[in-house]
Input
Amino acid sequence: MTGDLFESENEQPWAESRGEGVVVLRRFARADAPRLLDDIQKIASQAGFRIMITPGGHQMSAAMTCAGDWGWVTDRKGYRYQHEDPQTGAPWPAIPERFSQLAGRAAEEAGFSGFQPDACLINRYEPGAKMGLHQDRDERDFSWPIVSVSLGLPIVFQMGGPKRSDKPERILLEHGDVVVWGGPARLNYHGVLTLKKGNHALTGPYRYNLTFRKAG
Ligand code: MD6
Ligand code: FE
Output
């Protein structure tokens, strides 16, 4: 037999530029994915996935937890970063070395050297979950990019521009794809469409998203 049964595991990553400041690193995290998913489970055993409430009183549709010096939270009081998990009062779990390494390498590949994230948001989407167009703008210094890692089921990502009315481009994100946006794109509106039902070999019915930021 000449074919490789697990060809997709060995695929070499490639980069796609999606306009100024936006790079999609296809399959970049695929080789690490099983270990990343183990790390996610460890984090979730200390700081469990939970559905947060927006300041407007709506439930987020993805379940969320965090790692790092700073965790992002939303409740009736607003959006903010804080050092402690509001559910336990304990500091958020540390960002695993494997996560920081991956985020640093991805940022470097996209032209941002020296990225050392201090916040990692972990989202777990189940079928029907989505995230509307929004800006990531609760961080202190917008000169650092956002690094976003997709694991598990595919989803359609929307990357718009700096104005809410800018028409978003649709990008299908698959297992192991990493999106980096920064510089002129740092405050671009973005989101994901509704997750469709599926069954992924490593994540079952879920899609996980890791977003790395320099928050403090
Ligand atoms: C995504 N996520 O799941 C895009 N933003 O591909 C986000 O844009 C995002 O997951 C802020 C907070 C959490 C997120
Ligand atoms: Fe976002």
